[in-house]
Amino acid sequence: MIYLKKVFILLFLILFPFSVNALENINLNSTNYVVYDKTDSKIILEKSKEEIKSIASLTKIMSVIVAIENIDNYNEKVTITQEMLDTVPYNAYKVGLNVNDSVTIKDLLYATLLESGADSVNSLAVHTSGSISNFVLMMNNKAKELELYNTSFENPIGMDDENNYSSAEDLLKLLNYSLNNDLFREIFESNTYKLSNDIEVVDTVVTMGNKLGVSTKRIIGNKTGFTGDAGLTIAFNFISHNHEYYAVVLNCPIEELKDFKHVRDALTIIDYVDNNYKYKRIVEKNSIYKSINVINSIFKKYDVINNNEVIKLVPIDYDDNYKIVDTLPTSISNKLKKGDLLGKISYYYKDDLIYEESIFLEINSNSIIRTFINQHLIFIILEVILIGYIIYILRLIFSK
Q1: Which residues of 163-176 are buried (b: 16+ CB within 10 A; e: fewer)?
Q2: At what angle are helices 105-115 and 118-129 packed, to 10 degrees?
């Protein structure tokens, strides 16, 4: 009998499975990462985001935004000199600039962000400030201005150096700042660009995606990098559920360079957000949140009405992890006036505030009884008539 009971339970679970909403675990190759919902201004995923790490060519995010903010004419022509090229380490990646090439500032910006050219960024640095050391000083001053306390720069390229480092959190702040600049965003989100000397530069993620045989179209813009100390790194943005997200991934292993684990991590992050968030109606318009006692009034209750419909993007386990907190009083005086603040209603997912609304009295509390009468006048009249009729019948009965 016990055996048959177990079989029945098993069959029931197979035929009628329970729906359980639970966030998936995300498994990334990276040891440090942060994912930021730009639309709602909140971090949704992070691991060791404050840890200082070598960052490779993510350094060039700072190099480009510093150059953009210190140059007036982006179409200005720059002649590549031997001095510029002599500053480039032999083992750094180059886009192929040659002495006497004539290119624009904009060309150098594109070549730096899209294809991570060491020759383009050093040429940009020397032209902007006169020397690499001057330009690095400008980069570090910008880091202080942005309060990037776990960040230091020693070169514009991102070559390994004990004084060239940052954290996922600081790089997120830098990316958030830089993407507010229209030219930076335009370049960051481009796939290809042809320089004035006919060199075509291609976004590194597009190239890596083609080699992996995977689509990288969901990665809107990006900056990648790798060195021996930094491993593989990427900063990128994407759209999911009509929200924009920024993400920084640091210290992916280079066990097999052509496996491009940082790109795989980026795609995993996008899939995670796609599959683990949903839109939910947090507040239904015109619904009664609660009733409050009214002191010294025949009409004993005042209904607090939700005036707004609120639909939010929340994790799929929201229903199991939300709470509502309010500062509304348990009772109100009949002396309160329309427009007086009663309190606030706050909706939380775990400890994160999802939505908050201030509640104001919508009618003078001393006129609540009058409002009640106006709203229920017909019923009051009918009740009076009914009571009068009952009294009349009772008189007839007892008069006999």
Answers
A1: ebbbbbbbbbbbbe
A2: 140
Supply the pLDDT for residue 11: 43
Query: What percentage of the chain has pLDDT greater than the value 90?
Result: 71
Q: 34-48, 288-302, 350-364: which range is least confident on average?
A: 288-302
Residue type, 57: S
pLDDT at position 298 = 66
Q: State the first-to-last Cα distance of the chain, in angstroms, to the nearest integer.
A: 74
Confidence bin at 8 (pLDDT 50/70/90): very low
For residues 202 and 111, the answer to whether their CB atoms sit within 8 Å is: no
Q: How far apart are CA 383 and CA 389, in angstroms?
A: 10
Q: Could you give the angle at the alpha carbon of 310 between the alpha carbons of 301 and 372, nearest 5°?
A: 20
pLDDT for 332: 87
How far is the C-alpha of 280 from the C-alpha of 221, rounded, in Å?
A: 29
SS3 content of the chain, % helix, strand, coil (to 5): 40, 25, 35
DSSP secondary structure string, 23-37?
PPP---S-SEEEEEE
Give the pair of three-digit tokens for residue 382.
């009918």
Residues 6+ apart with CB under 8 A from 134: none
Angle at 188 between CA 131 and CA 220, to 5 degrees: 160
Token pair, residue 107, equals 């060309």
| 38 CB-contact burial (10 Å; exposed 0-12 / middle 13-18 / buried 19+) | middle
How far CA 164 is from CA of 60, 94, 139, 140, 155, in Å, comes to 12, 20, 11, 10, 7
| The pLDDT of residue 381 | 81
Q: Is 22 in contact with 316 (CB distance < 8 Å)?
A: yes
Question: Cα dist. 291→288, 302, 333 in Å?
Answer: 8, 5, 14
Domains parsed from the chain with CATH numbers = 32-276 (3.40.710.10), 284-367 (2.60.410.10)
- Note whether 238 and 247 are within 8 A (CB): yes
User: At which residue do the structure tokens 């009733």 appear?
Assistant: 291
Query: Is the pLDDT assigned to residue 2 strictly greater than 60?
Result: no
Helix (H, G, I), strand (E, B) or coil at 48: coil
Alpha helical stretches, state H, 16-90 = 59-69, 82-86
Mean predicted confidence (pLDDT) in 367-388 = 68
